[in-house]
Amino acid sequence: MEKIDATIVIPVLNSEKTISNCLNSIRSNDTKYNYEIIVVDAGSHDHTVEMASYYTDKVIKGKPFSINRNKGIEAARGEIICFTDSDCIVPENWLDGLIDSLRELNAKDPKIVGVGGPNIPLAYSKSPVETAITHAMRSPLISFKARNTAQYKKYREVNHNPPMNSACFKKVLEEVGGFVEEPGYPEDIDLDARLVSKNYKLYYLPEVLVYHKHKSNFDGFIRQMQDFGFKRYRVNRRHRHIARFYHYGPLFLCLMLFSPLFFVPLAMALTNALFISLKNRAFKLFFLITRLTIDFYLYYGSGEIKAIVESIS
Q: Where would I find the H helices in 3-63?
């Protein structure tokens, strides 16, 4: 049986609009490594499985409404597990960039067991709302130093690499028990928190990127932000060593919106919109970004509040 260097694990659910582009970009990689692609389906009702079967080595049936990355890891033959998402597109050097860097860094320091890179916004449409969301998600008064939108200029040690663009040794993933796949829980942040607590190290790779699609409408953005806030509080409560004061910025700004201090988040939203409009010379987005910034404070913060209430009830 042919040796497999790496396994790419991709969770999917009703991803027919994006999965072909994602898998085709992986198959277009010019790589020196032998690899396999495993797609794990969470119960799609569209043509996702049929389309994925054309490109992949395995399509595995996972649990409904679960991310199911553990099933992909269990079935993997590769020494290294690479992760991306079904709405991502990877460049032609993606696999070699992840695998080369992980092996080289691990050879220098065996404690370095995982790597990951940045993601660049991918917009399928030119709608003003989708464009505003892609800009807003990377603005300093919304991102709050979030790793999933960070773009650093140099290699650096980090506490988290989002699994839309990351790689880790399979044996290490198995050692810590894989992902904690609980509904409403950030299994990727939790996994990296457990790795760091065992004195393993994760590194950021500035040159290894993927293109990732953001939400394209207000409703999707709102639901995602509330979900992010809910999950952030839950994982910080379980892993207090990764909690940072700025994680709770949206919570306090949310409360301010309903207090005499409402002008503080409002002023921040206007400043954020002005900054983005000037930076991108897109003044028609000013009011959209103002609304998105306020929505972020309101719904991310309310997600954190919901998690706090549930934890004490």
A: 19-27, 48-53
Domains and CATH numbers, the chain: 6-117+161-216 (3.90.550.10), 220-312 (no CATH)
Classify residue 102 as exposed, middle or buried by CB count within 10 Å of its CB (0-12, 13-18, 19+): buried
- Do residues 118 and 150 touch, judged by C-beta distance below 8 A? yes
Helix (H, G, I), strand (E, B) or coil at 11: strand
Instruction: Please measure the distance between the N-terminal and C-terminal CA atoms of the chain and give it in whole angstroms.
Output: 54
Residue type, 142: I
Sheet-wide strand order for 165-169: 58-61, 35-41, 6-12, 80-84, 165-169, 112-116, 201-204, 156-158
The pTM of the whole model exceeds 0.85: yes
CA–CA separation, 35 vs 53, rounded Å? 16
Burial class (CB in 10 A: 0-12, 13-18, 19+), 311: exposed
Distance of CA 32 to CAs 9, 38, 93, 153, 206, Å?
A: 19, 19, 10, 26, 21
- Give the model confidence (pLDDT) of 99-133 as tens digits: 999 999 999 999 999 999 999 887 666 789 999 99
Q: What is d(CA 284, CA 288) in angstroms, rounded to the nearest whole number?
A: 8
Q: Phi then psi for 159, rounded to 5 degrees? A: -95, -10
CB within 8 Å of 52: residues ≥ 6 apart = 12, 19, 23, 39, 41, 59
Residue 257, pLDDT score: 98
* Residue 1 predicted with pLDDT over 90: no
